[in-house]
Amino acid sequence: MSTQDGNNAVENTPAPKSDKQMRAVRFHGKEDLRFEDIEEPKCGAGQIKIVPAWCGICGTDLHEYMGGPNLCPTTPHPITGENVPLTFGHEFAGRIEELGEGVSESWKVGDRVVVQPIIYDGDCGACQDGLINCCTNNGFIGLSGWGGGLAEHIVVPEYAVYPLPNNVPLDVAALVEPLAVGWHAVNISPFKPTDSVLVLGGGPIGLAVVQALRARGCPQIFVSEVSAMRKQYASDFGAHIVLDPTKEDIVARCRELCGGSGVHVAFDCAGVQQGMDQAILAVRARGTLVNIAIWDKHVKLWPNDFNFRERGYMGVATYVKGDYEEVIKAISDGRLDKCHKMITKRIELDQVLDEGFMTLINGTFSDEQNLDRDIGDTY
Amino acid sequence: MAVPGQVATDSSAKPMRAARFYGKEEIQIKDDIPRPVCGEGQIKVEPAFVGICGTDLHEYLGGPNFSPTSPHPVTNEQCPITIGHEFSGTVKEIGKGVSDKFRVGQKVVVQPTVYCASCGACKVGAENACSSGGFIGLSGAGGGMSEEVVMPEISIMALPPNIDLDVGALVEPLAVAWHAVDASPIADIKEPKCLVMGGGPIGLAVIQVLNARGAKLVICSEVAKKRQEFATEFGAHHVVDPSKEDVVARSLEICGGVNGPDIVFDCAGVPASVKASCNAVKSRGTVVNVAIFEKEIPFNPMWLTFREANYKSVLGYQRKDYLGVLDALGKGTIKPASMITGKIKMQDLVKEGYMPLIHEKDKHVKILVDMKASM
Ligand SMILES: NC(=O)c1ccc[n+]([C@@H]2O[C@H](COP(=O)([O-])OP(=O)(O)OC[C@H]3O[C@@H](n4cnc5c(N)ncnc54)[C@H](O)[C@@H]3O)[C@@H](O)[C@H]2O)c1
Ligand SMILES: [Zn+2]
Ligand SMILES: [Zn+2]
Ligand SMILES: [Zn+2]
């Protein structure tokens, strides 16, 4: 595995070029996604070559497609040196096809693995503190270069690869990424196992938070959501009470459900002003609102709502080392036993645009987590 | 138990003198205010020095905001109310059932927090976050600018013998700072590096408490020249002028160039200070907001989210914070006497107290009303 101290200059060397071609789904710019032939990467020293089996399409991918490039670099990324067009896919699992020189003896060709897509430099202030998710130069495999899961092959540094236990199938392993976001948020929040919690939003991330809370035995999980289908998902995945902000007074309901005082912690997985306003007031004195949502605009904040009850606000970003291992273990030992239900559709690589993106964007099927079938079976 | 902010009055006793707030730009010195009765578990204090605070000015200029215009749930009073929540004094009378720690004539300070003692916050000892809380001097039940104040024993604390009564009036703003520093993760950080936004009375109090609590580095960001000098005098190691320099870049550089400050205290309370605080703090660091805002501000959750930083707000103080400050004063780890930039009589409150604080804000930190000289 890579060194956690010192920079990643060696580990972050791009994979060598080859003259072979492969199929990949690449993002060229706003509403321009192409299924095309690109150069197949070779496996360099310290790297592992993987055949992706299943890859999820995420809200960030849709965002880039509809209004980007936002996160995807248009000038060379400081670590990968790449910019659009870039291969998509950061939520994926697959099998090892080749091992580069110098990687640990513990890996074998054919091993079933999942990729933790954070790209980091290893030497900025945040990285020195172990916060690779806050790296000033950070990026993601599948968004910032080094290929992505929506391709026939990918080469990544050894540090990005995590082994899967035998009882975790490859399709479920593609859910580790979104689950890790929710898991990490619960981990670094002040949540204690007896606390009452409000989750804003029943999308994939809201549902990941609900499952992480359920895995820890949270006795009171409330979800605020408007869409009928997502309300149903929220209760299927473990919410005790699902609230509808268009019909109910969220603040009053949370207080009432918590003996008058409000929830201990709220997680904002919605990212809308009205929800944030409600969540602040739904949190009890000294409670915390945890933001996971990505906002593209400023909000209006009334800081005195924090002062008079000494409430706190914190941001969380993706996951750090340790979260992937914990999520994989929790799937394996059954604490995240409902997560496979997040898969609502399976498609082939050549159907990504028509069947994947369009389904999610138009909401004709559902707006849940979807998986794209690549070559290879699941077990 | 006696509830802080509930006090009986005696209409048969000779009335007393007090400064009263009636509403926007209206303060009167009255001689017909009923005296409080020192009941069971309570102590009667004769105020000695009373600080004038930004909140008092706010009420005067644009209030009543904080001061109740309908009966306050605990004090049952509404404007006009007696002014003064930052004060020291001497014990004048001791109620039945009060412990033998107190004696008449003793120098004390009063924690002015009004709380119901029965809500969720009060039950967990967070009296400052009480859902019907307030302060004597702002919410009724008397105030420092009067001849007598009655509070329960729990709200009264002895001033160390080596500390003068005028310095005692500074315990309240220092307790705000102590509470803010206590709410920050300072105790868990090795060699904490801190940034304080604003060098007003609260910012200066935070600077002093940070030094008393072992901060390795204290940076202050302040626009006013005179206040920059105060910041240095009270222990800021570096002063940054946000009108001339980029606070975020400068504080990163001062902290060594790798990570920004571990903790940022916002004691300025303007949109620019909120943004700079959130952008200056290191990853997983904490912004402690002490400021009270007058309106909504633009805020971007992404300022905190990409660096997993925390933002928390604090309000007032708890008894532990008063005790912390009193202990530090006794030991000499905080020496705040030069925060006192003027002493006046109560009859000159507006002319010599409020006006200089409003119009020559930079020159002053604290103006105290000398109560003995006012009677
Ligand atoms: N939370 C509490 O319990 C509590 C208690 C008392 C006071 N307060 C609040 O604390 C705040 C500070 O109180 P104060 O009496 O020191 O107020 P103040 O107005 O005297 O001090 C604020 C200082 O900030 C400076 N400033 C303005 N813009 C700035 C910027 N962009 N960057 C850095 N500095 C800037 C000003 O020049 C001023 O010196 C106020 O909002 C007050 O209401 C809170
Ligand atoms: Zn880094
Ligand atoms: Zn004050
Ligand atoms: Zn209370």
Provide keyphrases for this structure.
heterodimer, A: 379 residues, alpha/beta, Quinone Oxidoreductase, Chain A, domain 1, 7-stranded mixed beta sheet, 25% helix, disordered N terminus, B: 375 residues, Rossmann fold, 6-stranded parallel beta sheet, 11 helices, 21 strands, globular, binds nicotinamide-adenine-dinucleotide, binds zinc ion
Task: Walk me through this protein's architecture.
The complex is a heterodimer of chains A (379) and B (375). In chain A, helix 4 crosses helix 5 (204-215) and helix 7 packs parallel to helix 8 (273-282). Mean pLDDT of chain A is 90; it is low at 1-5 and 364-379. By secondary structure, chain A is of the alpha/beta class. Chain A has two domains: 9-174 and 343-378, Quinone Oxidoreductase, Chain A, domain 1 (Alpha-Beta Complex), CATH 3.90.180.10; 180-315, Rossmann fold, CATH 3.40.50.720. Chain A is globular and about 65 Å long. In chain A, the strands form four sheets. In chain A, strands 3, 5, 6, 9, 10, 18 and 19 form a seven-stranded mixed sheet that branches. In chain A, strand 11 (196-200), helix 5 (204-215) and strand 12 form a beta-alpha-beta unit. Chain A is built from eleven helices and 19 strands. Chain A is 25% helix and 25% strand. By secondary structure, chain B is α/β, with parallel strands linked by helices. Chain B folds into two domains: 9-170 and 336-374, Quinone Oxidoreductase, Chain A, domain 1 (Alpha-Beta Complex), CATH 3.90.180.10; 175-313, NAD(P)-binding Rossmann-like Domain (Rossmann fold). Chain B is built from eleven helices and 21 strands. In chain B, strands 5, 7, 8, 11, 12, 20 and 21 form a seven-stranded mixed sheet that branches. Chain B has a six-stranded parallel sheet with strand order 15-14-13-16-17-19, with helices on both faces. In chain B, strand 20 (340-344), helix 11 and strand 21 (366-370) form a beta-alpha-beta unit. In chain B, helix 4 crosses helix 10 and helix 7 (247-254) packs parallel to helix 8 (271-280). The chains are: A alpha/beta (379), B alpha/beta (375). The A-B interface holds A 124-126, 128-129, 131, 133-134, 188, 259-261, 268, 271, 276, 284-286, 288, 291-295, 297-304, 306-317 and B 120-121, 126, 128-129, 131, 183, 258-260, 269, 274, 282-284, 289, 291-293, 295-315. Strand 16 (299-301) of chain A pairs antiparallel with strand 18 of chain B. The complex binds nicotinamide-adenine-dinucleotide and zinc ion (3 copies). One zinc ion binds at residues 120-121, 124, 126-127, 135-137 of chain A.
